[in-house]
Design a protein that fits this description.
373 residues; alpha/beta; five-stranded mixed beta barrel
Length: 373
């Protein structure tokens, strides 16, 4: 399935799945305004805008965004150059296999030779040039008939990420760093994560996939035939007047599953997966502790403050404040605090407990307080 260098890059299409509410970032991130629509790094750019801009040098306007119908307006406001046929709206979330699979199926119908790259809308990556170099190598590797993932070199034994196990260089001339993948492993416990780092040959799975649409769909058909059939039926009608009727009939009944289970893991077992090591810093901004890491505290008071016009007074206090209001927030003698103030909900926790914010969201949902979710 080899392709020459220039044509492989010319066939590349970026796909940005923009789903997920980011419940650990409540009350800043909500169903109506999920985390990818926020500037969480103080860079002046929202996460989805930054993701689109990172891909632009690689694929120009050949970038598709898959998001919920509720976010149509906000996404178009942030990405005014996004064309109508590159915005794919889901009527209800169906997990990553349906979102990425639908993009692959639509692109396959438009041109079966396309190599697509899927990159989540809510990741922070630096330096951008190193990311682009890795994606170029991934495209050349995909052109040789692989589903390619970009692995992140672990900086600590994280239990929050899945891992990728590799087994040696593939010897691809245009992708000298391409490695074979033996398996994807689930999020480990602390002891196992420690062992992975000690052993070497393991990278974090950042959920980045570059693949010929034809190969991705082949694995989807083998492992999730019902999902594959439904997506292909929708894709066949997508660029026609029948789209609405077919989507209404087929989409609600599609099975929910993650792309890792539906494609990546079985493809790795079949020897069809490769990995390019990513020589860049990467964060999926999973919780408020991550926002603290990505935004330096001011030297005068060891406090990170985010929010336009935030009014914060701090005395002997450390941590972070995210303010969406004009309310004055005064902190006195309190360490490692996280305060998130929005017009209708206030969160106070510590960085240590940042992962547990999700529980508050689940509890509020259970008690019917969905107006603040």
């Amino acid at each position: 399935m080899g392709a020459d260098k220039s044509s492989a890059l010319d066939l590349f299409y970026g796909v940005i799945p923009a789903g997920g509410v980011g419940t650990r970032l409540w009350p800043l991130s909500r169903a109506a305004a999920p985390k990818f629509l926020h500037d969480l790094t103080g860079s002046g750019s929202t996460l989805i805008r930054a993701t689109y801009s990172r891909l632009e040098p690689l694929c120009g306007d050949r970038t598709m965004v898959v998001t919920g119908t509720a976010h149509r307006k906000a996404v178009l406001a942030q990405l005014p150059e996004l064309t109508k046929n590159n915005l794919v709206l889901e009527s209800e979330p169906k997990d990553s296999a349906a979102a990425i699979g639908l993009a692959a199926a639509i692109l396959y119908h438009r041109d079966p030779r396309i190599i697509m790259g899927s990159f989540a809308a809510d990741q922070v990556i630096n330096p951008v040039e190193k990311f682009q170099d890795a994606v170029r190598e991934a495209i050349h590797t995909a052109a040789e008939g692989y589903i390619v993932t970009i692995g992140i070199t672990p900086t600590h034994p994280s239990t929050g990420f899945g891992y990728i196990r590799t087994n040696g260089n593939l010897g691809i001339g245009s992708a000298p760093n391409a490695l074979g993948v033996t398996e994807f492993v689930e999020k480990p416990d602390a002891e196992t994560a420690q062992a992975y780092l000690a052993e070497g040959g393991y990278s974090w799975n950042a959920g980045m996939f570059v693949a010929p649409v034809q190969l991705l769909l082949k694995h989807l058909e083998t492992n999730e035939p019902l999902l594959y059939a439904g997506l292909m039926e929708i894709a066949a009608a997508w660029d026609t007047s029948k789209r609405r009727d077919v989507v209404r009939r087929v989409w609600p009944g599609l099975p929910k599953t993650a792309i890792d289970y539906a494609v990546a893991e079985p493809a790795a077992a079949a020897g069809d997966v490769a990995m390019i090591p990513g020589d860049f810093s990467w964060d999926d901004v999973g919780d408020f502790a991550a926002i603290g890491r990505l935004n330096a505290a001011s030297e005068t008071n060891n406090l990170t403050v985010l929010g336009e016009g935030a009014r914060v007074y701090a005395e002997n206090s450390t941590g972070m404040v995210v303010s969406d209001t004009k309310r004055v927030i005064a902190l006195i003698g309190i360490d490692d605090v996280v305060v998130v103030d929005t017009p209708d909900a206030l969160l106070i926790t510590t960085k240590e407990h940042a992962q547990q914010v999700k529980k508050a969201v689940e509890s509020l949902r259970a008690s019917g307080d969905t107006d603040v979710l």
